Automatic annotation (TrEMBL):
Keywords: Dioxygenase, Oxidoreductase, Signal
One Gene Ontology MF term: oxidoreductase activity, acting on single donors with incorporation of molecular oxygen, incorporation of two atoms of oxygen
Keyword Oxidoreductase: yes
Every Intradiol ring-cleavage dioxygenases domain range: 118-235
Superkingdom: Bacteria
Region called Disordered, residue ranges: 36-65
Membrane-crossing segments per the record: none
Signal peptide span: 1-34
Protein name (database record): Intradiol ring-cleavage dioxygenase
Source organism of this protein record: Pseudoalteromonas gelatinilytica
Amino acid sequence: MTLKPELYTRRKMLKTLGVSVAAVPMLAFLGCNSDTVSSTDTTSDTDTSTGTDTSTDTGDTTTTNDSDYVSGTTALITDDFPDDSIFETSTACVLALTQATTEGPCYFQADSDEDISDGLTGLPMMLCLQLIDSDCNPLANYEISVWHCDTSGIYSGDTSSSSDSSRFAGDFCTDGDAEAEASTWYRGSLITDSSGRVNFKTHFPGWYSGRTIHIHFKVANNNNDYVISQFCFTDAFAKEICTTHSDYKSRGEQDTTLASIDNVFGSDYEQFILNTAQNSDGTLLAYHTIQIS
């Protein structure tokens, strides 16, 4: 499906914006699979869409999906966050240093609790991140901020309570949408616990022209930014959700995939891909380890 013209106009210059890389310290990403987590593993590039019709009662409405994943608010996340075993690897810790990516024009600081959805609907998602050092020891008391667009590819834009909004690009990010301009959805910051963990409740993001579906994040401590980067999803998984899930399929497939060379991730995108699994409650689990030196 063709993206609405006004949204394309707002986004088409990302081809030039996305090529700048933030001058920040090096980091390593560890993609850690675990047999104890999922009923359905979606980290491979195999299309896992089943085409099965399911109906999900969100508590307010009943939505018919062609997807095995539920549709609704994050109240549908009834499973507990998984334990730290999801981040374990069967091999010794090895650094695989890579450059951080660009912050993008749509960042501003926003405080939150673990649920950053502000009551919106979509595919409910747990986003679990673990921060470790170069020796694979967990790092506590670091701030991890995340931000991403809604199911329609628009960022929230209420900067009135933000202590850091100087780089926010306003209408470019919100598309001039009044609801977005009055909201802070899909933005938040949490402090890592003794295991280096933060856990967010959110929704699978939508897409906008010129970029593959992605989630921004930043790691900071004592007002110093350690790394600014982004996570993404496999092309196969993004296609599955965008073509079968009721909250995404009306817009169809994203126009920019990893295979077509996203202008931020380029051809070396594997280390940025989130591990994904389906929770027993039908929601999505996405997780990754962040390693800083």
